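#lab-general

N.A. 3:47 PM
ok so I finally got the sequence cleaned up, no stray characters, all 148 residues accounted for. can someone with queue access submit it? mine expired

B.Y. 3:52 PM
send it over

N.A. 3:53 PM
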Amino acid sequence: MAKFKFKLNSILKLNESIEDQKKNEFRKAAVQLEIERNKLKDLFNDKEHCVSAHQKALKERIDPIKSDMLIKYIDLVNKRITTQEIEVKKCEEFLEIKRLELVEATKEKKKLEKLKEKQYEQYIIDEKREEQKVTDEVVGYKVYSKIS
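B.Y. 4:20 PM
back already:
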């Protein structure tokens, strides 16, 4: 019985390594998105803290200079929040691109795996036919030998 050999095995191996690479890129993009979301969350927390501090200070007759500084800082945080929201959106879009690339790489690998599977099934069928042919020849030879 001859050993099964998939002719496109090197391409399958290449596709497997491409898929692994795409998985790593996707993971890195997901981690980066989580980092950027945490930064945004921290900015919102900072803003909330400053707003509550400003409101508390207003009740306690705050110094106008301190009030002005808090308002300017809140404005600065708002600008940072806007910038960070844009960064988060970019990371989400990048993650989606990496997800699509991963899906495509996985599809390509699965196509080759399916082809390999079909070729292996055909190989098994062919081997069984050959085996049956040999068996038939042996049986035919024995029957012919007994007749002669």
